[in-house]
């Protein structure tokens, strides 16, 4: 293994996805070599097309539910479909990706004795009865519902990370990511920010599920990636889990109105049924992140982040 002070060879699973592609750009920018392993289920080569000519970048079409034998100095595990539309398309494969994927990558990290990051999620809190959510809260998750393949898969992956840490002394970093948005979100993934922007740009109705009074807290991708980098640089004794997200909470209706205003769209709001097990409120408590990650907190205001995301989708839809 190479020294942690010099440039590293880094594996990013799920690197052709939204967050992974931004992370890879940051790592290459720091002078590291990056191997991206992705089965392109929800990710696309378009997200990494601009990196393919970079001699420090390598793409591997690989499904993390299968073992992977390579030599790297550090692992970031982001592979997993992240939106309800995608993760419920093949729920068994979603659980396998989280659970078998974690086992294989932890096995790889154990053999290589290298640091490993897990992209966990605020969904481990389920429909929370504690608000805002702190890391100590154990969650309120339905084990047999339509979201369970994602929520319970991610919870089991956390269990595996902590058992490999306790049993084999693995150097782990677990981030619980809250709703994040930005360029390279999938236009058809059904997530609220991409849905509303695409609908507004096309002049279609904006689909609000329920009455739009449920809340979320949206973090711009650059702020999240800064949190990732700081977390991965912490001392070995800090494992997380740590919440990463933006505490600025708003209702879904307010988000719809903000998107309409920023796109100057004539779109109208329409109300559709609320999906089963859809959490009513979600806001990260980021006290732990602030104290452990050198005062980290999101910097990008929703309006600025939405403008950059709208510009991306505008380019994509008119291409
Ligand atoms: P994404 O769908 O854009 O990226 C996920 C990537 O994983 C895709 O490129 C996909 O092709 C790949 N993938 C899926 N199954 C795989 C498999 N079996 N083997 C190899 N690759 C596979 O989603 P994202 O928003 O970039 O999410 C990245 C990670 O962050 C996920 O683990 C997700 O659960 C987590 N996360 C994201 C958010 C968010 O708001 N974006 C919130 C919480 C957690
Ligand atoms: N594994 C892998 N690459 C490696 C080492 C292990 O993909 O370099 C996988 C392998 O499939 C194994 C799993 O990780 O089953 C867990 O590894 P571990 O050493 O914990 O368990 P064991 O090999 O004893 O089952
Ligand atoms: N949502 C909505 N209209 C849409 C897509 C989503 O009202 O077109 C709602 C959804 O019901 C949820 C919130 O927006 O209450 C966030 O949904 P998303 O799928 O983006 O994230 P998650 O539910 O995983 O937080």
UniProtKB/TrEMBL annotation:
Keywords: Decarboxylase, Golgi apparatus, Lyase, Membrane, NAD, Signal-anchor, Transmembrane, Transmembrane helix. Its EC number is 4.1.1.35. Its cofactor is NAD(+). Residues 11-309 form the NAD(P)-binding domain. It is found in: Golgi apparatus, Golgi stack membrane. It is an enzyme of class 4 (lyase). The keyword Transmembrane applies. It is a single-pass type II membrane protein. Pathway: Nucleotide-sugar biosynthesis; UDP-alpha-D-xylose biosynthesis; UDP-alpha-D-xylose from UDP-alpha-D-glucuronate: step 1/1. Belongs to the NAD(P)-dependent epimerase/dehydratase family. UDP-glucuronic acid decarboxylase subfamily. PANTHER family: UDP-GLUCURONIC ACID DECARBOXYLASE 1, UDP-GLUCURONIC ACID DECARBOXYLASE-RELATED. This is UDP-glucuronate decarboxylase. It comes from Stenotrophomonas aracearum.
